[in-house]
Amino acid sequence: MIWHVALPRMWWAWQLNGPVVDGMAKFVARHSIGARNEVLRLEGVSLSYGSTKVLSNVSLSVEKGDFLGIIGPNGSGKTTLLKVVLGLVKGHSGSVLMLGKRQDEFSEWHRIGYVPQKATNIDEHFPATAYEVVSMGLLSHRGRMGLSADEKRSRVMSALASVDMGEYSERIIGNLSGGQQQRVLIAKALVSRPDLLFLDEPTTGVDEKTQKEFYEMLSALNRKGLTIILVSHDIGRITRYVNKVASLNQSLKFYGTHREFCARARRHKESHQHEICIG
């Protein structure tokens, strides 16, 4: 069950259509350009498709070791924002700095891991093992450094082990469960040992137990130092694990720490606040 479905409609009306939280400007100011641990910065990012505004003046900063949850209703621009950051959507205004470099100058894509939306829609007859799928993530190393066969195997098995899928390395990917496939795809994103991991709606189509296990796995990876940016509309689940929250509905309606997010909920005395801020 996806918890957000049961939340009152007034939640999105308050959180996504209301004014930006008073402290947000101060929060952004604390993370000014040049911050030593900054790994991603967006400034005034806007995008339109014809006359339709998709993103409007989005600015935020992500520091090394953050676990950022980007939340919002369907059609709020979450996936588009992620694709803008990754250079998959062009034509935006504003600036994107990734790992200290402007987007048009950035070339170290092996330092970025990405698991797109609906990545687990895999044909059960697709003739590739979990090991082979993960090894595809090493393609970004070509032209940068050579890896011996032993080094390649070590990296692939290490990535699979990090998501508790080492024993499934020789299983055909299409024969794995949805949750297991998602773990394999996370391993594929991790095999190049990235500094940043982006995930877009990673738990779509998996059951509640698998969702919980999946988020706990991500939390463990984050505690080991991996910076994670996760797009989701599952506010009732992800806010238990993230340390920062960005609430998006074309423009940024809230950006701050999880503590500030929950403090705002308490100030507004909304009936659903306990579901969002448990843990």
User: What name does the CATH topology of the domain at 1-99 and 230-279 carry?
Assistant: Rossmann fold
Q: What's the β-strand tally?
A: 10
User: What helical percentage do the residues reach?
Assistant: 25-40%
pLDDT averaged over residues: 81
Q: CATH class of the domain at 1-99 and 230-279, anyone?
A: Alpha Beta
Element-by-element helix/strand order:
HHEEEHEEEHHHEHEHEEHH
Which percent range describes the beta-strand content?
A: 15-25%
Distance between the termini: 19 Å
> Which sheet architecture does the biggest sheet show?
6 strands, mixed
Low-confidence stretches: 1-34
Strand order of the largest sheet: 6-7-8-3-9-10
Explain what the structure shows.
It is a single chain. With 279 residues, the chain is an alpha/beta fold. The chain has a domain at 1-99 and 230-279: P-loop containing nucleotide triphosphate hydrolases (Rossmann fold). 33% of the residues lie in helices and 23% in strands. The chain contains 10 helices and 10 strands. It has helices spanning 9-17, 24-30, 78-85, 130-135, 149-162, 178-190, 208-223, 235-238, 258-268, 273-277, and strands at 38-49, 52-63, 67-71, 93-98, 101-102, 112-115, 196-200, 227-231, 244-249, 251-257. The chain has a 6-stranded mixed beta sheet with strand order 6-7-8-3-9-10, with helices on both faces. The protein has a 4-stranded antiparallel beta sheet with strand order 2-1-4-5, covered by helices on one side. Strand 1 and strand 2 (52-63) form a beta hairpin. Residues 1-34 have low confidence and may be disordered.
